[in-house]
Fold these 3 entries.
Entry 1:
Amino acid sequence: MVAQLELKEVSKIYRVGDNVITALDRVSLSIAKGDFISVVGHSGSGKTTLVSIVGGILRPSSGQILFEGEDICALGDVDLSGYRNERIGFMFQFASLLPMLTARENVMLAALFAQERSREEQQRADHLLDLVGIGERVEAYPGELSGGQQRRVAIARALMNNPGLILADEPTGDLDEETEAEIMKLLGRINREQEVTMILITHNAALARTADRMLRMKNGRLVGVTERE
């Protein structure tokens, strides 16, 4: 299959005084459109550095990253910001909703950052909230929503700009086991039905095994790949 995302010998090195810290060490990886990939490893293994570089939050020290054929390492700051806002959807450990905004307004934030302000954007936000199962709570504020409902708003927000890739860094870390299972089921359904590529970062091996491929990282290196049976 043609790769949507390719990493070629990507490294990230920090220099602190006389110390050299290698956060990512010559990682090469190919991901096709619609793949669901999980990345596991102990704290400090390079997982978050990997998704931060793929998402354009950090620049690599060396190597090449191709997204849909475009080398994002060659982008200037303005174009890299556009890449983050328009082509990547982000999900983090906490929903991080703004408490003074409604569910709809929190979802629309992504469009506002992309300078889209239209009736169609509001309709898309409502559609996405319906898609994630809380269409009846569009006017609710975060304080009026359960943890699982807040996470569904965060998923809708990640989808707002119709990204080709969602990066989910420990997206269920603060949820109870039952709600965690519901959110993972929802992410899997969105991956299949919307054909959105997903990269999931998790410490939870059971969650990681629900992905199409599980990548294992250690000391900044990719040390193993397990295909789902």
Entry 2:
Amino acid sequence: MVHVREMDGADIEAVSTIRVRGWQAAYAGMVPQTYLDAMTVEGDAVQRRQLFSQPLRKSRDLVAHADRGLAGWICFGPCRGEMPVLGRAGEIYALYVSPDLIGQGIGRRLLGEAHTQMKSQGFEASALWVLSGNQRARRFYERAGYQADGATQDDVYDEITLTELRYLRVL
């Protein structure tokens, strides 16, 4: 059984573990291995503590708790860019599930709860960005009702430029 709840400060180490291991598993072969190898749970936790402690932060963090502990994490909030949609748009900033638990509905539960909370906050649509080569994530979001809208942005990882696609969904 999976329980979704608000993240608290005590969850930071576990969330950082999920995020780093998630990056290393999901982006192997897409993001340069040197970049993935340089990621550490400790370094990520330092960043996460700084972000989490900002008094005026507008993002929300939820965690999925399963039998063996934290199994997933999602972060969302107001859309950070211009949106070609009517009404207010939210954005999924990050969604990660422990690599060994992918396919068990944890990501779907986190995403569903984020959608519910975004809608209750007055958002009418949700956006997110996905690496163009991340077919697994693209299929996941498409099954959840997201569609690529044609917008792209480039990110550079160890001097390698990778393209992200924007996906949108009406809430």
Entry 3:
Amino acid sequence: MTREQRLVLAIAILGSFVSFLDGTLANVALPAIRAELGGGLSAQQWIVDAYLITLGALILIAGALSDVFGRIGVFRAGLIGFGITSAAIALAPSVELLIVFRALQGAAGALLVPSSLALIMANFRDAAQARAIGSWTGWTSVASLAGPVIGGGFIDLLSWRAAFAINLVPIAVALVLMSRLAQRDVRRAGAAVDFPSAFLVVAGLGGVVFALIEQGNFGWSHPGIWGPLTVGAVALGLFGWRQTRVDHPIMPISLFRARNFSWGNVATVFVYAALYLSGFLIVVYLQQSAGFGATAAGLALIPSSIAMILLSSTIGKLAGRFGPRPFMTAGPLLMGAGFLLMLMITDPLNYWTQLLPGAVAFGLGLAITVAPLTSAILGAVDTARSGIASAVNNAVSRIAGLVAVALVGLIVGARLDLAGLHRGLVVCAALSIIGGVVSWIGIRRQPVGSHSAG
């Protein structure tokens, strides 16, 4: 790699790292936040999902913003906004304000992921691009998996507030590195931002998720539940309709004409729903029911992080050589096997015999899946559309996660006990296996240098 390419890759990894990190760091902080600020299971779901709602919805508009204003400028704005909102979360005096700040943090995070991947796609080609994506997906996936570890350490040694404030360090480093970039920002001629569509998708997701989370408190027959659910469903329907009518849609339907893009996003729904749901269930259960401290709970899934670090780059290269289909099939199936192995968990829990074998299988499966999945989806579209393509895929993964977390109450009941954990793990296994089957049916090897959608 050239000096400029090394800088781009480091900046892309650092910026996305904090976004992915905070997506899961909150899981391990939930019991400590509840002890200090109050709130039950629904408040815990909101702390996770407030971030995912704005992140998942606004990632779509962030891709268009990158095309209009330039990837570098949008990325820099995301870094600054993420730093400010992280500091606000660390100082939050109530759980209600914390949830508001998490939503704002998700909006800032939405500016980071599409711009970072678009920077990589613009600066790397062919085999080098596959390796760079492998490194990016490896480290960003490690961020998701390491969030509970890093958060747990800060919570046990200092406080949950310090766990969120630590974001300021990688953000500062990334901003310094950006000042050393030699390249100029790139804007796409004729690009525009569809703000009404962004409003519709935020309102739609917000209404649906509100109903799913709060139905346990009010019941489905309550107007405070079916009202927001209806409004959300209508807003999402209008969003889909609008994407076929406007000149500059934030989710271009034409992208889905590419086979690997459309099938890859379907696989993303199932794989990432399983990933987010399992992260919430396992980390919270270990602390609130199994008696683990925050650090121990965070370390429980460390085999997954190790597998991602050691294997992602290699898997990315192999997928570039042999195609993504075998990896996107075998990986989710192995993830599903890992969740089924975790059904050995009993009360009291023995980590080494009951949780570790499943964690290892899950980590290996995830490492085999992520880089080929990203390469298959982005490789199916023209490089000029990589920003919006990555935005759509990242939105799909976050929306799948936020819906999965919103369904926790329906899956486990009012309290996350051992029986509820087992039900959740079965759901995670089923989601993963479906993701593997979808990949086998739909994914095909993409000829080097060819794209199906522009």
